[in-house]
Amino acid sequence: MAQVRVLIVDDQAPFRRAAAAVVESTDPFVVVGTAESGESCLVAARTLQPDLVLMDVGLPGIDGMEATRRLATLARRPVVVLVSTHDEDEFGDGARSCGAVAYIKKSAFGPDRLAAAWALGSSGSTARSSTPPPGPSTSSR
């Protein structure tokens, strides 16, 4: 299976390190770079051409939702997953309309959510803002 190149964008070094550890321990994902702001994310995305961007919503300067909108203009548009410590509904329609394929609360971020978000985004789904399930459903309907 081909590697999935991941750019991690967050202004907090502890989350960048934690997310990098999850990415590096989850096949087929590999960290190709990190960025601390929306502006540095846009530069890094042009240079590194990631397949997937983990984007903090609350970045200084250009916030994560605006950076996501701008990433959509790149010739090689990455799949973007928004991450935050806040609940998704605190961001209103912005989280749904910026072009991200999923929203994951930082406290829930892990290998299963990473893989599910990538599957959602790489499938060409038009879903823009649902937190992906943690894995296969065990409930009966």
UniProtKB/TrEMBL annotation:
What are the entry keywords? Phosphoprotein
- Give the organism the record lists: Geodermatophilus normandii
Looking up InterPro entries in the UniProt record yields: CheY-like_superfamily, EvgA-like, NreC/VraR/RcsB-like_REC, Sig_transdc_resp-reg_receiver
PANTHER family named among the record's database cross-references: HTH-TYPE TRANSCRIPTIONAL REGULATOR YHJB-RELATED (PTHR45566), NARL SUBFAMILY (PTHR45566:SF2)
Query: Response regulatory domain location, by residue?
Result: 5-121
Please indicate if the UniProt record lists Phosphoprotein as a keyword. Answer: yes
**Residue segments, region Disordered:** 121-141
Q: Which segments show compositional bias classed as Low complexity? A: 121-130
Kindly list the positions at which 4-aspartylphosphate occurs in this protein. Answer: 56
- One Gene Ontology term from the biological process aspect of the record: phosphorelay signal transduction system
The molecule here is called Response regulator receiver domain-containing protein
For whether the record's keyword set contains Phosphoprotein, the answer is: yes
Q: Which domain of life is it from?
A: Bacteria
